[in-house]
Automatic annotation (TrEMBL):
<feature type="compositionally biased region" description="Basic and acidic residues">
    <location>
        <begin position="256"/>
        <end position="268"/>
    </location>
</feature>
<dbReference type="InterPro" id="IPR001841">
    <property type="entry name" value="Znf_RING"/>
</dbReference>
<comment type="similarity">
    <text>Belongs to the NSE1 family.</text>
</comment>
<keyword id="KW-0832">Ubl conjugation</keyword>
<dbReference type="GO" id="GO:0061630">
    <property type="term" value="F:ubiquitin protein ligase activity"/>
</dbReference>
<feature type="compositionally biased region" description="Polar residues">
    <location>
        <begin position="245"/>
        <end position="255"/>
    </location>
</feature>
<keyword id="KW-0234">DNA repair</keyword>
<dbReference type="InterPro" id="IPR013083">
    <property type="entry name" value="Znf_RING/FYVE/PHD"/>
</dbReference>
<dbReference type="Pfam" id="PF08746">
    <property type="entry name" value="zf-RING-like"/>
</dbReference>
<keyword id="KW-0227">DNA damage</keyword>
<keyword id="KW-0833">Ubl conjugation pathway</keyword>
<dbReference type="Pfam" id="PF07574">
    <property type="entry name" value="SMC_Nse1"/>
</dbReference>
<keyword id="KW-0158">Chromosome</keyword>
<dbReference type="InterPro" id="IPR036388">
    <property type="entry name" value="WH-like_DNA-bd_sf"/>
</dbReference>
<comment type="subunit">
    <text>Component of the Smc5-Smc6 complex.</text>
</comment>
<keyword id="KW-0479">Metal-binding</keyword>
<feature type="domain" description="RING-type">
    <location>
        <begin position="176"/>
        <end position="215"/>
    </location>
</feature>
Length: 284
């Protein structure tokens, strides 16, 4: 491995999660301008993954559905995530972790408010101060297990990646009908109720205006009722894997078209479609 590979590995170990933009800037700097776009970055990641796969590590690219950030994540590919976490967090912290996760999964919109999240500390089997809760939650937000957007906490990109098989087993409906990855905060077809990642359906709709599943003219409902106000880089929610064909440029374009569509959409549609969310699909 060359120095640029080693520097990038160190960068990913230190950060755990990074936007593609920041990762590319870093690589451009350490490679003295050799790496300056997505294709170069992907090549570098492939080369690194080839070297580190035997140590059960992997660098993956993905998307944040909550913030629409395009991300790079450093992952441990060993299967037993729970025992990995046990090495890092105390039993009570893990209990808190699972309680938050469950609370989000049980909520209709797959998000809970920050306040509710902190209040969960008082429901644990032993005393766990709100202060401690906030500290460890910040750690999980930084490392991508959870995502904060405005007042809400969502499942994060790392959570979805590392717990994919668990989530797919227990929430079989929470799958994007375009890319087959997990989706908890997406867009839903008003006619057939099928769910898609915002970035998947926006890309699809850039060429046409029909739902990919039922072929009726697309009227989407947002699963995430919030506005597009963004929080920090680390507060992200990722879904796809390394071979996502989308460039960051395309992503920012789809993001804009999504915004426009959101603005055009009437409140009436929003309200009338609130009832039929992905997890309660009537039919498949
Ligand atoms: Zn998708
Ligand atoms: Zn449809």
């Amino acid at each position: 491995m060359e120095q640029k590979h080693q520097y990038f590995i160190q960068y990913m170990i230190k950060n755990g999660i990074s936007t593609v933009e920041n990762a590319t800037t870093f690589c451009e700097y350490v490679s003295k301008g050799e790496i300056k776009n997505m294709t170069h970055l992907k090549t570098l990641i492939l080369e690194i993954n080839r070297e580190i796969s035997q140590q059960f590590y992997k660098i993956v690219l993905g998307n944040c559905e909550v913030t629409n950030n395009h991300l790079v994540l450093w992952l441990n590919t060993k299967n037993d995530k729970i025992s990995q976490l046990q090495n890092i967090y105390s039993a009570l912290e893990l209990e808190y972790f699972h309680s938050i996760m469950q609370e989000i999964l049980n909520s209709e919109e797959h998000r809970i408010t920050f306040i509710v999240c902190i209040n969960i500390t008082s429901t644990l089997t032993d005393f766990f101060s709100r202060d401690k809760g906030q500290k460890v939650l910040n750690k999980w937000l930084k490392t991508g297990y959870f995502v904060r957007k405005s007042a809400h906490i969502y499942l994060g990109p790392r959570m979805i990646l590392e717990f994919t098989s668990y989530l797919k087993t227990h929430y079989p409906d929470a799958v994007c009908n375009l890319c087959s990855d997990i989706v908890f905060v997406g867009k839903q077809c008003a006619s057939c109720q099928k769910t898609f990642h915002s970035y998947c359906i926006n890309k699809y709709l850039s060429n046409q205006n029909k739902c990919p599943c039922c072929q009726t003219i697309w009227i989407g409902t947002d699963e995430d009722g919030e506005d597009d106000a963004e929080d920090s880089v680390n507060q992200s929610h990722m879904v796809t894997d390394d071979d996502s064909p989308n460039s960051p440029v395309m992503r920012s374009q789809t993001r804009n078209s999504e915004k426009n569509r959101n603005h055009r959409r009437s409140t009436e549609e929003d309200v009338s479609n609130m009832e039929g969310r992905s997890m309660r699909k009537r039919n498949k």
